[in-house]
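Researcher: Good morning. I'm working through a list of sequences from a screen, and I'd like to move beyond sequence-only analysis. For each chain I'm collecting a predicted structure so we can compare shapes side by side. This is the next one on the list. No need for commentary yet; just the structure.
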Amino acid sequence: MPMSSFFTRLAHRARSTNSLLTIGLDPHPELLEEASPGAALDFCLRLIEATSEMACAFKPNSAFFERYGAQGVAVLEHVITAIPQEIPVILDAKRGDIASTAQAYAHAAFTVLGADAITVHPLLGQDSLEPFLADPAHGVFLLCKTSNPSADELQSLLLSHGEPFYVYLARLAQQWNKRDNLGLVVGATDVAALAAARAAATDLWFLSPGVGAQRAELEPALRAGLRADGLGMLISVSRGLAASPQPKQEAQRLRDAINRVRDSLAGPAPTAGMAPSLAALADDLLHAGCVRFGDFTLKSGLNSPIYFDLRLLASYPRLLARAAAAYQPLLAPLTFDRLAALPYAALPIATALALQTGRPLIYPRKETKEYGTGAAVEGAFSPGETAVVIDDLATTGGSKFEAIARLTAAGLKVQDVVVLIDRQSGAREALAAAGFRLHAVFTLTELLDLWEAGATVPSHQIAQFRAFLSDSARG
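Model: Good morning. Structure tokens for this chain:
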């Protein structure tokens, strides 16, 4: 990638200031002494002076300047000029039109106004973005999953292969980012969507509004959206900071709060090969008591020094939503009509997944009803459809075969099984031998590597687990 690319510059700024805080310059009329271009200018200049030290970037919203006509546009140009040269400026203009018009918009934003980056609509496709992306020094943040209440009406629509539109768009953006100058706008208010977008676009920078006035929670958002290097996410705060009687102190507080979360995810490479959102999920499963240590007899009859009690997820709604979101990247390339959850631990996980994706849910009963409909499989489906089996864990595969038998007896087809954790005790091999594919968010080995690197679990327990895995492999 060119050394002069927009995101090279942005990353340098983030590291040099130890900040991911982006300051929104939105001169709402109610925040001004009077609704005038002059008052808007004074408002922005005061905010720039108070917060420049903490700002990774500034984000003026063109609408609040354009409302004053030509005078307002002149004020916007003045504001951008007043921002210190070393601080990137992201113009929040949400442009999007055919290529020739986009070229004019790009000239206005980058050449006339002097912005470094701009927010853009994606619906006209790649050619409409190219004029904004032509110079690597200029960045684009593509609207992907926004934080407004009606965003899901379009952005979460399911495509024919079952993937939400915003996830598909994130994957496209990852491919379109040829010059290191394309990022995404992904709101901080929907943590599950943030995690799904990050899984689809592992390398891209996210511009994430919603902290402050829209009440997004900082820690879950950062855990879901940060890249493995602790960067890749700009936390954008506008009204929540501008309305503060002490904006400098509030900016310091926000920067420090962001960095506390970043520090909690840092360590001696505990997330190597694993996205921070997944590493944080694994650690939070541990802290929630979903992972226990001792001497346990599993359903399979195996004795194990570790036990996963994922039924507890139902008592932690935010953690449940994050766990369900972790399934989405595994499901995206699969072809299926229904989610089929195995009772009981997978039922809340699959319900959360169905709510996130809009995919219909069914479940095979543990026992056939002897009253009412006598159904062996609950929910609406048609014979000949394909179901993907959703479970919490895979050990030997026994419970999966029982469920698959009930599903196929009801006329459904099964090709894939998706779980949160593969205990690596033979399930993958057994299922493969029968023609089924196992997909897992985590393997037990990956979890052990993570917890060992982060010193989260005592070394003697790690040794016990590794010995257990070794014995299981020999068995």
